[in-house]
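Handoff note, outgoing to incoming analyst
You'll be picking up this chain. Sequence as last confirmed:
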Amino acid sequence: MGIVPGNVYEGDCIPCLAGAEAGSVDLVFADPPFNIGYRYDVYNDKRGEKEYLDWSRHWMSGVWRVLKPNGAFWLAIGDEYAAELKVIAQRDVGFTCRSWVIWYYTFGVNCTRAFSRSHTHLLYFVKDPKKFTFNADNPAIRIPSARQLVYADGRANPKGRLPDNTWILRPQDIPDGFGSDHDTWYFPRVAGTFREREGFHGCQMPEQLLGRIIRCCSNPMEVVLDPFSGSGTTLAVAKKLGRQWIGFELSSEYVERIRARLRDAKVGGPLDGAADPLASAPATFRQRRTLTNTAENGERPAMRVRAQRRESGLSGDRFDKAIIEAYAESHAGFSLDHVLADPDLNATFLDACARKSLSGESAQWNRALLRIRKAGRLPRLNRRVRTFTFEDMDPYSFASEIALQQLSIDFDTTLDDILCDPALAGRFDSIAAGFAPGYTPFEYRWAALAIRKRAKHAKQLAKDHFEEWNGVKLPRSRPVAQSDWSKFSCPGVYLIISQNHLQLYVGETLNLQRRIEPIRELQSWKKLAPGFVKLLPTGEPCGLQSFLIHRVNPVLNSRLLVPDLRTVA
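Most recent structure output, in case you need it:
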């Protein structure tokens, strides 16, 4: 069997790349040896210059071969060979360089007769300069603009902006002066005392840095490859962010440690390290004094900035009164959840807000409505109710769950965030429709709300039946291509597994036949290469689904349904 996702392969990256299928990888991140004499356990990091450059040309050609036409390649390299490798990648291999990013870190190498090294070069290449993945609208990538941070300008785009070029000072020296809005990125190096340090590799990348790259240049379920896996950070972050992953590593000891790290990493789990670069930077005396004099309610200025960004202009009784009036004019007797989930009702509410000349934009007005409800200030309604039963939503609720999971981990967002932001909600609808076509946006969104509401009950059932279900042996796998599913027109739980044996999704349904048959036909499923299913006919699928999500950690299930079984295990 060839190179397939979900594996770490022991061996030299050049033959491993040659063994991978051409055009099968979406993103490659490579942090190769810098040829500076670093002591690895099985690699000589001090080659002659020509030998090192020839070797680099060889493995980068392998990267070119395995990348898809719209794929991206990120190269981390030190000062000594950054220029040479950039020229080789462009002139000899054929890549186009999109950005030359500087990763700036503290805890750099201390020098006595030269300036201390405190950066690494990150070269961002693409195969096709006109067609490539760059998720510019992902809020987990965008950062506050100067209009927001410095001038508090209401005209600023509340979603922030993309990074640009600038020189910077050390973050310890200027409070709130170092942001992620530049192509000089500040992330603290993973020093030996840091909790995220794996302890077996001296050149460990921060998970937050890899998170930015993976979110920006790939999409959920796409394939991320690291030809120099080292401590396994790229692979662990890819797994947490719902990507497929492939790793190559020369050291057998490192391979075993990477596999152990990956077993502990959970899909949808938080990335190690601080997302805010200032969080790990020790404050200087001037900074501490500024923080003491200017902080309100114990908040750092950076925390207030984030709060202001989320609710710019959303304060004051007059503003809240206008939001309540807009809701009263538009709810048509339906609940707030209904107003957020129904695109037509929500558009009516947003139009009412716009007529009142409120500051901010659509997502902020919707979030203000949620905030006001939480404070108990929304008027009581003689509610109109549109009832949807579990049976009504059974044909499409799984698609809502998949859409919720993909957006939650990739955009670092919640269901409320999705419903409040019309652009995110539209993306949610599109993903759900790909897995269960033919339903309305309201149905997809209401099903997601229903999943959230029943999650507590499902997780409690998983706890209650832990001993019983923990001993259940899963049935044998059946090929998805099996032609006759007629004897499974009954309720049950099912597990979908890819051709590469990746656990894709645990679902519950009132009709297993009706759920399984479309998997062979829909393009959204085909992209995931489903190969097998395990079927468990049962009369109580809800809690069992939650238990199996905990057990097999599939990539497409919402983390809302994951029970905490540590106290009963």
